[in-house]
Design brief:
Length: 210
């Protein structure tokens, strides 16, 4: 299963940055440090939450996915060969769990395509192609974020929290002075536009932009 693959140095997900602190946190969490584990969760929870929102997993379902993602990390913590690949691994597991839950929900609610309004798409609803393109763009954006250094990636994710976080809270979580958040955000967005994933997203060959 995708969620059970090892995190290796040749993992296809970009590591992003020099994240030596992630290696330290992973090592300490393996040794039983609750503080290190809490730091890992706090650091990567915005990434997990962002993906759940994108796949419309909310409420009790979001709680289930969130708990499963961190349980998978506990189960595989000793197998992590390259801690810098951890963000990508978490993103992969989160996606897998969202898809799995949606599949289960679909199977447990049988519908008749002749009578069920589920298959009646209102005129104002986006068509299937638009939804697929939106999913593709979001996947590319996540890949682009994972190419960024950890601090810039984390800042952008914190800035997309819903409800929005205050700059004081963002400062506390990121370690950045309040006055540095705006300039760092601007630099992070510039770097994001230069990532391989973002360039692929905006390439004329993808048909979305010319």
């Amino acid at each position: 299963m995708e969620s059970e693959r090892r995190v290796r140095s040749d993992d296809p997900w970009p590591a992003g940055g020099t994240d030596t602190d992630i290696a330290t946190l992973v090592a300490e969490a393996r040794g039983g440090s609750q503080a290190a584990w809490d730091s890992l969760v706090e650091r990567f929870l915005p990434l997990v939450t962002s993906l759940m929102r994108r796949y419309r997993v909310t409420g009790a379902d979001a709680d289930d996915v969130n708990q499963t993602v961190w349980l998978r990390l506990v189960e595989h913590l000793d197998r992590i060969d390259e801690p810098q690949a951890l963000p990508g691994w978490l993103a992969t597991v989160t996606r897998h769990e969202c898809f799995r839950l949606q599949h289960l929900r679909g199977r447990t609610v049988p519908t008749d395509p002749q009578t069920s309004p589920t298959f009646e798409r209102p005129d104002h609803s986006p068509d299937m192609l638009a939804e697929l393109l939106a999913d593709e763009r979001h996947t590319a954006l996540v890949d682009a974020l994972l190419e960024l250094p950890a601090q810039r990636r984390d800042l952008l994710l914190l800035l997309t929290e819903d409800p929005p976080l205050s700059y004081a809270e963002i400062s506390r979580r990121s370690g950045l002075p309040v006055g540095s958040i705006g300039p760092t955000r601007a630099r992070a967005l510039q770097q994001l536009r230069r990532t391989r994933a973002f360039r692929r997203l905006t390439s004329p060959t993808d048909g979305s932009l010319t």
